[in-house]
Specification:
Blueprint lengths: L6 H12 L21 E5 L2 E4 L4 E4 L14 H11 L10 H13 L5 E5 L2 H16 L3 E5 L16 H5 L10 H4 L2 E4 L4 H10 L4 E6 L15 H12 L2 E5 L11 H6 L5 E4 L10 E5 L1 H4 L18 H16 L2 H23 L5 E5 L2 E5 L8 H6 L2 H13 L2 E2 L8 E2 L6 H16 L3
Parallel strand pairs: 3-13, 5-6, 5-7, 7-8, 8-9
Antiparallel strand pairs: 1-2, 2-3, 4-10, 9-10, 11-12, 12-14
Helix pairs in contact: 2-11, 3-11, 7-8, 12-15
The protein binds ligand KE4.
Ligand KE4 binds next to helix 4 and helix 5.
């Protein structure tokens, strides 16, 4: 450890020797905000503690899963108890049936569900299923939406791809990306044009129903309804990527909050309670094409493993049995919104705060931020400066302007007041 290096700095130097970029997922590297990523040692409730023992109020919550705060006791205990009976069988278990029945009971329009181990797997499997079901190759995604790192989705993607401004991802072949069509979020005319230009060739439209990977971007009135109508008219499979919104916005996710039904839905994050879990589900008429029932092959050694299932089941059952959690999350997010908005107005800083349920993001823009181009045109350097001002004062925001802040029920009003106070102190320096 060099003179006056923090433990995180020392660990980052060491990590870079054996892990590409020192991290196992690029967004954690602080590459866009600059500085050294903070190495965490433990977390409980609303707080994470780094390798130097410093406490942070957490607005990442593992990028969504920790809705009830870190080390939520019932999930931890369920994992401990289950692990004693083996951590994986590679054979079917009753718990997988209970998990599937619970998801089907909570998610609208989902008759059947297949468990996988990540959101990426869920989205790539859903796309393959839509292609196999329709016999068509092309699909439409939206600029700035992120559906995991499967080749087909790494075209104008959000999250880390946007953060690092990677225009074309090496290794994604032209043969793959030629079937990926893209349109701006909230631009129905652009979608209609793609459909007209590719008549009968489009298998699916996949969307984050409330986008979270370019900051939080909210569908404008009529946009989702328009997409649903296009899919109905053209026989296109409408896929809601609810890896972020599922079971977070409501028990029934964005389908419930927006009142729009999807043909296939993908899940991740919350449904694993912090363990690696993803899932995709939908109408039986489509799902029955998945192997071994049908011929659309999809598989996974650790899909439905008992530890991930018991963690996810405990999490989802808690959410299902305590609907007040959603009001609490929404109220706390609204309180944060009000406080931040007040500080930004007091300091006369042009801004747009996008909030939907417990998803929120702050954009330093004097225009509405309703798609990726608008999010990219904001003063994201200023966001980076805000990020570090907050971090220095023990508030951990997502290290990118192209991410959503995640709220947990473990956040106290005092934590939120402190967050607003620290933001206000930074913004006052801009006067
Ligand atoms: P994973 O493969 O990372 O579990 O899920 C991919 C994915 C799919 N769909 C949506 C809407 C998502 O938000 C994600 C993953 N989200 C990012 C955060 N914006 C994961 C963080 C990371 O890449 O480390």
């Amino acid at each position: 450890m060099a003179q006056n290096q923090t433990r995180s700095e020392e660990l980052f130097d060491r990590a870079k020797k054996t892990i590409p970029g020192g991290v196992n997922s690029p967004v954690r590297a602080f590459k866009s905000v600059g500085g050294t990523p903070i190495f965490m040692e433990r977390a409980r409730g609303a707080y994470m503690y780094d390798a130097d023992g410093k406490r942070y109020i957490d607005y990442i919550n593992s990028w969504g899963p920790m809705m009830l705060g870190h080390a939520y006791e019932p999930v931890v205990k369920a994992i401990q108890d289950k692990a004693a009976g083996s951590t994986s069988f590679g054979a079917p278990t009753e718990l997988e049936i209970e998990m599937a029945e619970l998801i089907v009971s909570m998610a609208p329009n989902v008759d059947m569900v297949r468990m996988v181990s990540s959101g990426t797997e869920a989205c790539m499997s859903a796309l393959r299923l839509a292609r196999g079901y329709t016999g068509r190759n092309k699909f439409i995604k939206f600029e700035g939406c992120y559906h995991g790192h499967a080749d087909a989705f790494l075209v104008k993607a959000g999250s880390g791809v946007a953060t690092f401004n990677i225009q074309t991802v090496p290794g994604v072949t032209a043969g793959v990306s030629m079937d990926t069509l893209t349109a701006p979020y909230n631009d129905l005319a652009a979608v209609q044009q793609l459909v007209d230009e590719n008549k009968g060739e489009i298998a699916a439209i996949i969307i984050e129903p409330v986008a979270g990977n370019m900051g939080c971007i909210i569908p404008e009135p009529g946009f989702m309804e328009g997409l649903r109508a296009i899919c109905d008219k053209e026989g296109i499979v409408f896929i809601f990527d609810e890896v972020m919104t599922g079971f977070r916005l409501a028990a029934g996710g964005a389908q419930e909050r927006l009142g729009i039904h999807a043909d296939l839905v993908t899940y991740g994050k919350v449904i694993g309670g912090g363990m690696p879990v993803g899932a995709f589900g939908g109408k039986e008429e489509i799902m029955r094409h998945i192997a071994p029932l049908g011929n659309v092959y999809q598989a996974g050694t650790l899909s439905g493993n008992p530890i991930a299932m018991i963690a996810g089941y405990t999490m989802l059952k808690t959410l299902k049995d305590n609907p007040g959690i959603y009001k609490e999350l929404d109220d706390k997010t609204a309180y944060l919104h009000k406080g931040l908005s007040g500080a930004l107005v007091d300091c006369n800083v042009p801004h747009a705060i996008n909030r939907f349920g417990s998803m929120i993001s702050v954009h330093f823009s004097d225009k509405p931020v309703n798609n990726f181009a608008a999010a990219a045109a904001a003063n994201n350097t200023l966001f980076n400066n805000l990020f570090h001002a907050m971090l220095e004062n023990g508030v951990y925001l997502p290290p990118s302007a192209f991410e959503t802040w995640f709220i947990s029920t473990a956040l106290s009003m005092k934590d939120i007041d402190y967050t607003v106070e620290v933001a206000g102190e930074f913004l006052a320096t801009l006067r």
